[in-house]
Structure to design on (157 residues):
């Protein structure tokens, strides 16, 4: 049989596994965000210890490398000045007559469905540095956003 028709193993034809991509820029976090990263690292270490199959274990190790990098590069954001929006702030805004409270947090803590947006999100960019009572432009399609209040994020959320 010709060498051209022989396959040594299935390993030769598997797609390469790349590392999980890291968000660009600094890894700014809140104290809660750092605690979440620490908890995720502990959870993954326990899962790796318990996993016996090689392929699922490799996937868990890959994810652990990502979270270890996030933990190593994490920088707790300095608290913003009182009344000024920044990382770690809960900003209550009014847009189109509707009030909404938004928390500005780090990438790994962001959950838009729970009104927690990353500091790098376009809306966060518009809000950071704004003060209570100020109006900020977000985009050309909407009216200006009114900043109703700015407070630190409560630790229970």
């Amino acid at each position: 049989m010709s060498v051209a028709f022989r396959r040594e193993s299935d390993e030769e034809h598997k797609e390469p596994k790349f590392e999980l991509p890291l968000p660009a820029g600094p890894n700014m976090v809140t104290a809660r965000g750092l605690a979440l990263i620490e908890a995720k690292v502990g959870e993954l270490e326990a899962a790796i210890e318990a996993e016996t199959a090689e392929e699922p274990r490799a996937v868990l190790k890959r994810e652990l490398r990502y979270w270890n990098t996030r933990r190593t590069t994490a920088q707790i954001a300095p608290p913003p000045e009182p009344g000024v929006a920044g990382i770690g702030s809960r900003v209550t805004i009014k847009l189109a007559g509707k009030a909404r409270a938004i928390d500005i947090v780090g990438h790994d803590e962001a959950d838009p469905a729970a009104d927690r947006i990353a500091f790098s999100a376009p809306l966060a960019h518009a809000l950071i540095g704004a003060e209570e009572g100020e109006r900020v432009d977000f985009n050309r399609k909407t009216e200006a956003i009114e900043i109703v209040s700015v407070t630190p994020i409560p630790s229970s959320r």
Summary: The CA atoms of residues 75 and 122 lie 21 Å apart. The chain has a mean pLDDT of 87.
